[in-house]
Task: inverse folding
């Protein structure tokens, strides 16, 4: 995770120092990244100062230990103005951070917590809401969503010229990106879609579902859902499916200052995207976990669910419990290879949809090629969350597509910025950047035309090639 984050920051022309205690891993990173690498323990003031923490803008701690990450951030609290981000998986630590000091600062000296399981569960539940037929990205405070799906042969989109797209789909809808054979294409009206292309479609929920159907994917009601793995991630997904009354439990995972909530943003939290799921009284959730002790805890926590203490790899178990009759299987164990194999195998046995959690974008590409409908790459999801906090105060969200070559940015237009008061058609953006959506606090959101005038207070959602984020922030952010 640290290597992936460092690579992206280096590409953005940031000066990066990386501290790694494992000698072999430190050599590996040093040979592949253009940055300073220190082979040492990070929980040392001496090492931090050698790495340049006194002059740094930010410190990001993503070791495997919650405690080490928090201790390092605590040691760095002596440096004023340093942004401190910690990867933490323990729920109690995160909740503890909400207890503010009298001066108003976070109680542990950490500006932002990043909880990997919460970030992955959010992505998984969002995809399930839409029938688990493609990846879904939601934007807080707006009814628009970005759906990613592969075009099926002989579907309505197969062979379609994009200049004819709006004659086919009514309503505001935009194809923002096309992935083809490992390449990413920012489409124009002359782009022709082909079977096998992975398209990223921006639209409201109704139009998005219609677009998915026209791409050749039929959405069926999801009533029987199996979750393989009852650990942190599996239990968070189960909580989202079964107990929506706890939706606010992880609403604010960071302690930093956020944009004031508008009326339509107040409910935008961890479980706020459940709009069309079948009511839980009509759903059956099965949790499959090998650890007996954990199964007892899950059964007590989720009395509505069927908890099975079984090994998913047992052939007889799959037949006896009718696991192959599920509408959706979610594989969320800590072993990504098992997640992929289980998802593929159960689809071959007749399970309609499969969602697998993996560690990296590389495994995500493999899983998609093997036929897994939705893949959640854990490292990429967490790195995106961290990058959004590092990009600056005006960038509110960042999500990378196309193996990291293209990103979706949410950015606020500040008063006095270069773009304020200028028309979209008269103010060119960096090459490879496209404004997809304008989000307004009170008025309805819309996909902008050339006559749109950049207005302070509006939030823009745009797609841009990696390496242009800093330039985009200068255009729309406050002058420094």
Result:
């Amino acid at each position: 995770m640290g290597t992936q984050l460092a690579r992206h920051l280096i590409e953005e022309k940031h000066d990066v120092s990386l501290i790694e205690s494992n000698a072999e891993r430190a050599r590996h990173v040093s040979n592949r990244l253009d940055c300073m690498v220190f082979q040492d323990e990070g929980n040392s003031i001496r090492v931090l100062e050698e790495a340049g923490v006194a002059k740094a803008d930010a410190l990001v701690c993503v070791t495997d230990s919650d405690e080490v990450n928090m201790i390092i951030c605590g040691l760095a609290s002596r440096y004023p103005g340093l942004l401190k981000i910690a990867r933490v998986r323990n729920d109690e630590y995160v909740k503890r951070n909400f207890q503010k000091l009298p001066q108003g600062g976070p109680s542990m000296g950490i500006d932002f917590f990043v909880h990997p399981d919460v970030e992955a569960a959010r992505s998984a539940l969002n995809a399930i809401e839409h029938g688990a037929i493609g990846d879904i990205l939601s934007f807080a405070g707006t009814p628009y969503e970005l759906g990613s799906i592969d075009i099926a042969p002989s579907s309505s989109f197969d062979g379609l010229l994009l200049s004819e797209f709006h004659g086919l789909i009514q309503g505001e809808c935009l194809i923002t990106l096309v992935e083809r054979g490992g390449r990413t294409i920012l489409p124009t009206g002359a782009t022709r879609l082909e079977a096998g292309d992975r398209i990223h479609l921006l639209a409201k929920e109704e139009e998005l579902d219609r677009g998915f159907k026209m791409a050749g994917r039929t959405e069926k009601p999801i009533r029987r859902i199996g979750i393989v793995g009852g650990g942190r991630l599996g239990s968070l997904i189960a909580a989202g499916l079964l107990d929506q009354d706890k939706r606010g439990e992880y609403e604010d995972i960071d302690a930093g200052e956020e944009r004031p909530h508008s009326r339509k943003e107040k409910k935008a939290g961890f479980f706020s995207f459940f709009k069309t799921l079948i009511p839980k009284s009509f759903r059956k959730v099965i949790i499959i976990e090998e650890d007996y002790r954990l199964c007892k805890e899950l059964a007590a926590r989720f009395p509505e669910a069927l908890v099975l203490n079984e090994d998913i790899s047992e052939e007889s178990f799959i037949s006896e419990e009718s696991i192959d009759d599920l509408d959706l299987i979610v594989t969320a164990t800590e072993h990504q290879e098992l997640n992929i194999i289980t998802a593929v195998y159960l689809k071959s046995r007749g399970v309609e949809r499969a969602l697998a959690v993996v560690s990296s974008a590389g495994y995500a590409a493999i899983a998609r090629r093997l036929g897994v409908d939705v893949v959640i790459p854990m490292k990429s999801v967490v790195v995106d969350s961290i990058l959004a906090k590092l990009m600056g105060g005006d960038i509110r969200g960042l999500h990378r597509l196309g193996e990291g070559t293209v990103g979706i940015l949410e950015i606020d237009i500040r008063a006095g910025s270069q773009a304020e008061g200028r028309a979209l058609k008269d103010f060119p953006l960096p090459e490879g950047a496209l404004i997809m959506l304008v989000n307004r606090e009170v008025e309805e959101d819309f996909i902008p035309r050339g006559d749109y005038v950049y207005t302070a207070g509006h939030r823009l959602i745009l797609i841009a090639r990696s390496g242009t984020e800093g330039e985009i922030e200068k255009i729309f952010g406050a002058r420094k």
